[in-house]
Amino acid sequence: MASxxxxxxxxxxxxxxxxxxLPQIGGTTRLLxxxxxxxxxxxxxxxxxxxxxxxxxxxxxxxxVIAILVLFETVGFEGPDGRYLAVTTRSxxx
Length: 94
Known about the structure:
The chain has no helices and 5 strands.
């Protein structure tokens, strides 16, 4: 992805895409997040990985609230520096 000039010295920056894939027959795939540009606040991200997923089911609701935590590493002062992103969504519980 296009990034700050200083990131090119470290191999450039990478963005991420997060898909929700429903495994049952006839299940759909939903795009939850896709980077079109790297925000300056992420500095020079070099990798992304799942860190955790937290769910909450409000009483008397058919929707499950989901927060997906993604750990991304950037170029730090003395090696990789890790930060977190949260992607939220809702899903119908049957």
